[in-house]
Amino acid sequence: MADHRPIRVLFLCTHNSARSILAEACLNHLGQGRWQAFSAGSSPRPGQQPHALALAALQEAGIATVDLHSKSWDAFAGPNAPPMDLIITVCDNAAGEVCPIWPGHPATAHWGYADPSEGEGSPEQRLQRFRSTLQAIRSRLEALLAASADLAACGITDPASDGQRLAQIARRLAQA
pTM value? Predict the structure, then answer.
């Protein structure tokens, strides 16, 4: 049986500082090498870095934050970019924007989450919004991984080779 490359997923939001960073780190943690996650923003601010509370929520959950950094989606639209199998927007702004033409024409889905960095509150209340967003993302990612494992049990050993099926799963999870 041939080894298959990991299923590659790109998570997009506007600034690439919170939701997409949470999703990237969480999928890389849960995917155990069978999935490879990336994140980017449609318009990250100059000098943008991952939100400190996003990093804190990830660290509390035991998820590695090394190498996480904010970047533009242009890094994934060029000819030397790694080919993606699935692109998931995690904020409504990015979902409504005109996206680049992605190499390989990957499947797409939208999983909308409220921006945990918006709003006031005590430091604990603000951190709790990031924890809650991470948990919501994690729940969907666990369901995505379980659904892809079900595909493997049915004899589809490389879900990335069937992008439409992968997109259907991701879109169905958006409704959950």
Answer: 0.88
